[in-house]
Structures are given as C-alpha cells and as structure tokens.
Amino acid sequence: MQHPEDPQFSILIKKTLASIWKYLLPYRGRFVLSLLLGMVSAAFNGFMLIGFQLIFSLVLKGKTRTLGEGTDLPLVGEINLAKMFNLDADAPIGLTGVMIACSFIPVLIFFRGFFGYLSAYMQAWVTSKVAYQMRNDAFQCVMRQSPAFFNSAKTGELMQTVTSQTAVVQRNAMQIIQIVAQRPLTIISILVVLFAQDWLFTLMSLVIFPACLLPIIRIGKKVRKSGAREEYDSRELMVAMQESFAGIRLVKAYAGEKHAEDRFERTNASMTRNMIRWAKAIEIVGPSVETIASLGIAAGLVYAWDRGLEAENFFIMVMALTQIYPPVKELSRVQMMLHKTTVAAGMVFELLERTPDIQDAPNAVDIGRSRGEITFQNTALYYRESNGEKKDLPAVTDINLHLEPGKFYALVGRSGAGKSTLFSLLLRFYDPDQGSVLLDGRDVKSISQKSLRGNIGIVNQDTFLFHDTIRENIRYSCTDATEEQIIAAAKKAHAHEFIVQISNGYDAVVGEGGCNLSGGQKQRIAIARAVLRNAPILLLDEAYSALDTESEKIVQDAIHTLSAGKTVVAIAHRLSTILEADQIIVMDQGRIVDRGPHAELLTRNAIYQNLYNLQYSADERRDA
Ligand SMILES: Nc1ncnc2c1ncn2[C@@H]1O[C@H](COP(=O)(O)OP(=O)(O)OP(=O)(O)O)[C@@H](O)[C@H]1O
C-alpha cells in the first residue's frame, strides 16, 4: 500500500477511480440519472435567481407599478406582463398580484430542493449498492485466501478494511461525485446570471475571489495527508482492539492490561491528532470563504452606490454571490477528500485484487465419497518467510507414505518434526513444493477443495466453538442435520450426558470460543461435529492433549466409535492413545524415519524409545 507522501500517489488515485468506476458500471443507468438530476438542480439555481429578480422587481416597486411596465431580466430581456397575458396595461399589480408573485418563492425553492433531493437519493442508492458489493467481495476474497495468508495478515486490519474502509469510500465517493458533477454547473449558472446583470462587477469578483482562496488551498494541501493518515491509524486501532479482546485470557494472565491500554492509547492519540488536523483544514474553509464573501458584499455595496444600482438588482447580485460561495467551498475540499478516499479504497482494492494461493484447478472434480486412501509421493514443503521467500529448511521432505482405507495411523515425533504439516498438505492448505499428495490415487490439486475437505473430519487440539448454542455448534459440520441426528451424534461423542445436565441443554450458549465449557466438553462437541460429518477420513490432532485422565478415557471411547470403518490419522504426544494403531509413523526433522506397530518400534527405533520413555516416566511421576 502506497503512502500519501509517495510520488506515485496520483497514479494510485487514477487507479482507484478506475476501480470504483468498475463497481459503478452495473448501476450506470441510475448513476447517470442521478448526475442528470444533480445537473438540473444545479442549473435551476440560475433559473431561480431570474425568477427571484422578477418577483422582487414586481413587489418592491409594487405600489406605483402597473402591469404594463416592463422588467428587465438578465438573459431573458424585458418582460411585460400586460402584453404577455393580454391584460390592461394600466392595471396596478395590487395586493393579489403581489401575493401571487410571492407565492412563487416557495415554489422555486421547493423545486430546487426537490431536484436536489432526488439526485442525492439516487446517488446514495448507487453508492450504497457499490459499498454493499465491495463489502461482500472483500469478505469473500478474504474467506477464499489460503491459511498462509492468514498467517501474515492481521485480523483487525482485515475487519477494518471490509467494514470501515468501504464505508469511507462510500461516504466520500458520494460527496465527491455530487460536488464534481453539480457544483461547477451551479457556479456557471449563477455566473451567467451575474454577468448578464453586471459584467464589470462580476469580473471584479472573479478576479479577487480566487486570489482570496489561495491561502485556504495552501492550508488544505498541508493537512490533507492527515486525512489519509487517519485511515491508517483507524486500521491500527482495530488491530490493537481485536488482538486484545481475542487474547484477553493471555492479557489477564500476564497482567498485560497496561501494555494493551498503552498500545491502544498511542494509536488513538495519533488518530485523534490527525482527525483534529483534518477538521482544522476542513473547517477553516467555511469561515474564510464567508469573510471573503462579506468583503465582497461590502465592496459591492460601495460599487452599487457609485453606479446607482437599483435595490432589487443589488439584492439579486448579493444573493447570487452568497449562493456561489458554498459550491466553491465544497470544490476546494475535493482534493482533500480524494486523498482520504484513495487511501481507504486502496486498502479495499489491494484486498480485492489478491489472488488466493490455493485455488481450484479449472477442471477440478468432485470425487463424491472417498475410499479414504491417502498417498504422499516424494512430497516436500518449505514454508514462506514474511517477505514471501522460501525458508531455507523444508518443514517436510522426502515423504513417501501410503495410508490404506479403514486403518488407524499415528504420527509421532518431536515438536516441529512436521506432523501437522502433513495434515495441512492433505487438506490442501498448502501445495507441496515437490512431489504430490493423492487421495484415492488422484492428485488433491485436481479435486475441488470443497469435495476434498468434505471427505475429511478433524478433531483438533484447539477446539473452536462459535458464540452460539451447543446445537448450532454441532450442526456446523452438516447444516441440514435434523434434531435427531444431532442428538445421535452427541450420544456417540459421549457429549449428550453432560449437555442434558447443563441448564438449557442443547440451547445453552457456549460463550466466546466456548469459554463456558471445560476442555473435555469442548472436545466432545468437536467430536460430535465430526460424527455428524461422517467423513471417510478422520484427522486427530492432539485430540487428547487438553484432557485429564478421566475425560481422556471418555473422549477415547468416543473417538473409537467415530473411527470405525474410517482412515484415521492421529497426531499424538500421549503415546498411550495410539498404542493400538495399525501403524505408527515416526517423524524427525521433516522426514519419516521409521514406521511399524508399537512393539516393533519400541525394540528398534531410538527416537520412538526416547518418546516412549519420556512419556511413561512423566506419566509415572504424575501417577505417583
Ligand atoms: N505457518 C508456518 N509458517 C512457517 N513455518 C511453520 C509454519 N508452521 C510450521 N512451521 C515450521 O515447520 C516445521 C514443522 O512444523 P509442524 O507444525 O508441522 O510440526 P509438528 O511436528 O506438528 O510440531 P508440534 O508437535 O509441536 O505441533 C517447524 O519447524 C515449524 O516451526
């Protein structure tokens, strides 16, 4: 993301506008209509002034005036009402005439407001639709990214981009469109009337006025970057909040409240500073323009006295001048707003343009229900550094493994040996740098991600539960499951017993991340989810690590039921849970170093013996 100081920023502005235009295209009909309505409303300003002048000249000379006396209007020329309506030229205008004339004032104002309202509504409609589409696309784009993206992205930043930045684009884009499309026309229409009224006076105003605006433009330039920085700060603020809330237990456990508060306060202070600078720049424009306007009026009055102008003519000119200032004021803000919008839109489009690292091949197939046969062929994976460069050492390498359907496999090895990486490769969270991963003899890259992952059930060490009821948390793996199926799954997972005991049972809300439940209970809900999914492959990642011995026994029984007839691959640090595995695969430094049943490995493999001895001496110490 380029910074506002970057010389390439103007290129970015053009690119941003082009990208916004793409979003506007589907609504171009309404968009053009809104512009046309805005133009009508803008041009109506000039028409209204001419109307006012006719009304003023009729009313202010009312008593002495007769209908046959003509009124000289700018652009239109002389208007003689007696001639126009075929009336008696000597008839005085009278109170009725004055009242009729005056009643046109609200009519003119109403029409100006009406056109303005219609165009503003249309623009709000179009920009809201654009923002709606952008938010949807941004969220979908984030959801389609691979886990590698989430390893480097900050959740708070993503949330800020999807919600707030799209809102900034919507709000500012609407204002900018309105201003750019309408205000010049408003100014021109008023100027035409002014020139027709008194060209010399108008010319003088035109020369003096921009000169007076120069200092304002200068101030604007100085602080417009603050608007852009404010967008960066608001993103930082979201990150600070999101991380503090998500990690609240850690924050509390390490008494990190002060650190979190300081981080938030620093960003908040910077954002506030930039907001104030921004407000200073925006708000100085109004009073300055008004002061200049009052100078213009004072000078104009002197000029009117000198030229012997009639009161109603002077009145119209003052009115025209005061009407010309607000659009000029708004136009002078466009540059600042454009910068702010570009930064916000840049963040959104950067996200939207991101191609996911993992995508379905164009001819990716749905394999239906898999047999559960998994093969790793000479597979290797190197994770990436934060700059995108490959790490020097592979996370796994030379992996050649054939897992037969319906058997129970265990992956063991020291921490960092590469066990979870094999799961990630099978789930196609990452594509291997060498070799391939096959499911039922077919490269997982040729299978659609939905079909591939639909064949795999997972029970993790960190069970994630949504802030929802127990029922909905179980149903997550199979959204159309019936109540009976959910209860049956919970029974198989040995979760039903505790669910019916807690108040509200299946309707109990589990709290943020399942904080109202114990580790073992969360685990059993996760197993119920996996039961409901009934996938032919089951991956167990440290499924017992959060449990005490009693819960471990219950969960083990549940997993035993769940595993029947499935290909099960379990990562286990607690060897007691995998002693019965058909085959235990020993990993070390990213390689498979041995494989076989427990009894064989115990006699021949030093790493396995070591793990086993460490485990059992720890268990004995714990039991003692
Ligand atoms: N997302 C990642 N980005 C970069 N490196 C990673 C990532 N995930 C794992 N690694 C590294 O890859 C190697 C293998 O990690 P992996 O998680 O597969 O090991 P593991 O055997 O499952 O470990 P543990 O038993 O501790 O979970 C480790 O050196 C680890 O630091």
TrEMBL record:
* GO MF annotation terms: ATP binding
Query: What Gene3D superfamilies does the database record attribute to this sequence?
Result: ABC transporter type 1, transmembrane domain, P-loop containing nucleotide triphosphate hydrolases
Start and end residues of each ABC transporter domain: 374-614
Organism's domain of life? Bacteria
Which PROSITE patterns does its entry note? ABC_TM1F, ABC_TRANSPORTER_1, ABC_TRANSPORTER_2
Cell compartment(s), UniProt:
Cell membrane
InterPro entries per record: AAA+_ATPase, ABC1_TM_dom, ABC1_TM_sf, ABC_transporter-like_ATP-bd, ABC_transporter-like_CS, P-loop_NTPase, Type_1_exporter
Q: Mind telling me what this protein is named?
A: ABC transporter ATP-binding protein
Annotated source species:
Prosthecobacter fluviatilis
